[in-house]
Amino acid sequence: MGGVQLAAGEPEPARLLLRLEGVAKEFPGVKALQGVSFDLRAGEVHAVCGENGAGKSTLMKIISGVYQRDAGEIVYKGETVHFTSTHQSEAAGIAIIHQELNLVPHLTVAENIYLAREPRRGFLVDRRRLYADSRRCLDRLGVDIDPHAQVRTLSVAQCQMVEIAKALSLDASVLIMDEPTSSLTEQEARLLFRVIRDLKAAGTGIVYISHRLDEMAEIVDRVTILRDGRYISTDDFSAITVDDIVARMVGRPLEEKFPAPTRQPGSEVLFSVSGLTRRGVFSDINFEIRRGEILGFAGLMGAGRTEVARAIFGADPFDSGTIALNGQTIAITDPRSAIEAGIAYLSEDRKGQGLAVKMPVDANLTLANMDAVANSAGIIDRQRHRASSQHYVDLLSIKTPSLSQPVRLLSGGNQQKIIIGKWLFREPKIMFFDEPTRGIDVGAKFAIYQIMDALAARGIGIVLISSELPEILGLSDRVAVFHEGRITATLSTRETSQEDIMLYASGRSRHGE
Amino acid sequence: MADITNGKPQEAMTQRKGLSDRQKDIIQKFAALGSLVILAAVFAVTSSAFLTVNNGMTIALQVTSIALLGIGATYVIITGGIDLSVGSVLALAGVVAALAVKDYGTPIWLGMLIGILTGSACGVINGFVITRLKLPPFIATLGMMLIARGVALQITGARAVSGLGEAFGVLGNGSLLRIESIDDQGFPVVTFPGIPYPVVLMIVIAVAAGFLLNRTVLGRHIYAIGSNADAARLSGVNVTRVTAFTYIVSGTLAGLTGCVLMSRLVTAQPNEGVAYELDAIASAVIGGTSLIGGVGTISGTFIGAFVIGILRNGLNMNGVSAFIQQIIIGLVILVTVWIDQIRNRR
């Protein structure tokens, strides 16, 4: 790889690895891609940007052979190719890291990395080589994951790393990364970027898809923008601003990433938690939320932010501590008691824990408050059911063809709005938003920020858990920083910075304690 | 803000995606119903005795046990579970009812009530083992299947309980709106055979079960648990109680089926109902219930039960052996589920 080095001083012409010309793909009733062109040079990172539904994933699936194109040409290393399976594209040297994790929970890390490609000795798996090779892949990533560990024991971020290790093990010349950082912390993302730079230096071409435009500056060389299945532009990343990219993605200029706050946090304490402890997970958690305030929970993955929220919501147990709403201690034993007290929790795992995906829009919107649309005998009043659902569909601008559409067919942003609507229907006093914009495109993110601000303006207390510091800084009034199960600082957002927060999140403090 | 969700864009989106899910659902229903009609038409041609009022009642009577058990199976399967114990539970319930009447002299209605409650008790135990001891439903109800059958055999000494008196047979053999007169020699002359009580029971219960599933909060919670148990719990659904409820329904209906069956034979057989759970599951599956959970309807199961019942009856009348019948029903299950999967693929 890397080709023959030419004489010093004479720049090597970048070798073209992959070229797509006029690629089109149609699904029954939907033109997913039309006339899309794209090329990838050896040793570059080429980002593909676009909103959800712009055709990024379809394009990647065509390159990797999951789908077949209807029209156009794909030239890989100088030859026109027609891959009909990922097996073929992998054999040719094109690897893809999927957005959704494709790991087998009950196999070990090493067995997953080499799944269906196990090194063999006769009929048997060569276990020694399996684990040695896996160890090498993981070391190359610089992550501390035991190849013998079962995947089900790993965190989401660790699974993502295993997925990346798996792609690396293929020694691919083209590597497609679909949202590789969506569940990584800043620190872990940094590790990944280091690996990407190594791969670039080795001549690998990388197609990079991400919603986090800010992080792209570190690694991306060129950027291609798609909108509604059409090719918009390709530019050198240094010649274009993030604002331009966003404007082209959404087809209109986007002034602000965060809405100007309309809320005015009150001074009275609405909700307070003191001494909350769950042995081995978090200890002595104290915080207060004022009426109409957004409190950010910052910290590294595994610092205990989600665990604290889940415990307060009654989804997980805790050992000691008190929770008070409006100055009165409330007893929380399970999610039902928390919901009845006026607490709502929007899970970070939308499909896994937030939505009944096979059920229609209206059934999901009313799921947490069925009593309000039924009579005392538990019989659903269909008119009230329909009216209430429609109200939240309108209020939150949920884009759906009908109330009876199963939610699995909606976009991530609309799914998130449905979860928000579900909780609004309960008229909660406190809402926990756990990674509310993960995997959601720019336009929908802004809408969700607006909704959060509007809710706070109505006097609801909001906790925002986010791994994206700009989001915390752009949205919250105060920030509680978590480190290893403790709150190490509570800062006023206006008087703090990304660096400050990172410092507390990594367990150090300014005064070098 | 609001105009996105109503008016033209909505229509456009529906058209672009082709058929809406509602339309598909209707087509699916008609497909199942249609195959039922075709089946009946074919059998009507091949056998002259098929399309008669009497045979219709016979089929309905034969279908009652599959349909009643199928309704229970549908509830359980929608939550993502399975109930393998119903065949044994119905035997136990019937035997208990018969013994209560014969050995303890309880009135027949009370004996049958005890039988039905025996079924409910089995459901409670299933529910407890699954939701509290957290055993997989397959294992929990497999255990119950063996235990209930064992108890039924033990308390009867593996012998049939007979000599229950004619009154014990009324539930299984009587009918509503039966018109008959007694002729000179004392033999009854039947003007209209009436609607057998079991068929009346089946229809009433199916309607009630369908209503509960579609129109009540409890029904909605059953679907929610099968669609996503975590999301349901985090939305405040009492997953434990609702899940247990479905097993209690299944057990109770098994108990009722047992009483009806034993009453029809006026004899309680501890060996009755072997492998009925598979018929029940098959009827639900043919009717479009997904074993993964979250999907299924009572009307679908009802049609599924009739598909099985009509196939058996019609094939019998055409002299097809029981073994060939098994093969055909097996194929029907494979084909219907395959069609269902194609339909759901996108």
Automatic annotation (TrEMBL), chain A:
GO molecular function: ATP binding; ATP hydrolysis activity
Primary localization class, coarse: membrane
InterPro entries cross-referenced by the UniProt entry: AAA+_ATPase, ABC_carbohydrate_import_ATPase, ABC_transporter-like_ATP-bd, ABC_transporter-like_CS, P-loop_NTPase
A GO CC annotation given for this chain: plasma membrane
PROSITE patterns in alphabetical order: ABC_TRANSPORTER_1, ABC_TRANSPORTER_2
Lipid bilayer topology: Peripheral membrane protein
Domain of life from the UniProt record: Bacteria
Keyword Translocase: yes
Annotated localization: Cell membrane
Keywords annotated in UniProt: ATP-binding, Cell membrane, Membrane, Nucleotide-binding, Repeat, Sugar transport, Translocase, Transport
Domain ABC transporter: 18-253, 264-509
Homology family: Belongs to the ABC transporter superfamily.
Protein's name in the database: D-xylose ABC transporter ATP-binding protein
Annotated source species: Xaviernesmea oryzae
Automatic annotation (TrEMBL), chain B:
Bilayer-crossing regions: 30-53, 59-77, 84-101, 107-130, 137-155, 195-213, 291-311, 323-339
Pfam families: BPD_transp_2
Cell membrane is among the record's keywords: yes
InterPro entries (alphabetical): ABC_transp_permease
Membrane topology: Multi-pass membrane protein
Keywords for the protein's UniProt record, in alphabetical order: Cell membrane, Membrane, Transmembrane, Transmembrane helix
GO MF annotations, alphabetized: transmembrane transporter activity
Record localization: Cell membrane
Gene Ontology terms: cellular component: plasma membrane
This protein's record includes keyword Lipoprotein: no
First-listed, main subcellular location of the protein, grouped into a coarse class: membrane
Descriptive protein name: Ribose ABC transporter permease
Organism whose genome encodes this protein: Xaviernesmea oryzae
Lineage of the organism: Bacteria, Pseudomonadati, Pseudomonadota, Alphaproteobacteria, Hyphomicrobiales
